[in-house]
Amino acid sequence: MKLMMSDFEVQLGDSDSPSDFYVKFHAPKDSLYEGGIYRVHVTLPATYPYKSPSIGFQTKLFHPNVDEASGSVCLDVINQTWSPMYDLVNIFSVFLPQLLLYPNPADPLNPAAASMMFKEPEAYKQRVREHVKKHASVDFKMTSDDDDEDEEEAEEEEADEDDAVDLGDKVMSSEDEAADMSDLDEAPEQEEQAVQA
């Protein structure tokens, strides 16, 4: 597969099927998304290359032609005018960069982004930059879900250890309180002895 031989990082999906995978995609220079690094999910139909692949951004993207919730892409060359002459390298080196360089608010999947681009272009640019900074500015490793689960388990174990330390502190403080209480019990007896003397 040309894509795997190119500069793009590719990782197999959950099913370990060669028709389901993820690609690390860097936003093009001179676009509002410059500096953004995106994880893109690709699913190839059984009839590929005669039928177009399914493309979806896993990393959040504020764009008129990308559904913000699902990451689905609205791009004619992928959805309607696909040709077997195209390949996956075309998608990541030409089609997606063009999508980010030249959004089409007249055919939106994200109506809020399209409306903002039409009515408040400066606010739209600012929103895109903030979105890139918040969701796509940190480079990431293409790891399997198992690795992610291992990281989550390690974080949970650390949290459990922290809780155990906290509980230990509470036990110690309870013992201190008990010692203080016994001091208080002894105080009246000492006062009574002093009075009798």
List keywords for this structure.
197 residues; 11% strand; Ubiquitin Conjugating Enzyme; globular; 2 domains; alpha+beta
Describe the structure.
By secondary structure, the protein is of the alpha+beta class. It has helices spanning 2-5, 76-79, 88-101, 111-119, 121-135, 145-196, and strands spanning 10-12, 20-26, 37-43, 54-57. The chain has a 4-stranded antiparallel β-sheet with strand order 1-2-3-4, with no helix packed on it. The termini are far apart.
Q: How are strands sequenced across the largest beta sheet?
A: 1-2-3-4
**Biggest sheet, in brief?**
4 strands, antiparallel
The count of strands amounts to: 4
Low-confidence residue ranges: 145-192
Q: Which CATH C-level class of the largest domain is it? A: Alpha Beta
Overall mean confidence score, pLDDT: 79
Strand content: 5-15%
How are helices and strands ordered from N to C? Answer: HEEEEHHHHH
Quaternary organization: single chain
Q: Briefly note the CATH topology name of the largest domain.
A: Ubiquitin Conjugating Enzyme
Structural class by secondary-structure content: alpha+beta
Query: What's the N-to-C terminus distance?
Result: 100 Å
* Rg computed from alpha carbons, rounded to a whole number of angstroms: 29 Å
Helical proportion, percent range: 40-55%
User: Can you identify the CATH superfamily of the largest domain?
Assistant: Ubiquitin Conjugating Enzyme
Q: Tell me the count of domains.
A: 2
Shape: globular
The helix tally amounts to 6
Named CATH architecture of the largest domain = Roll
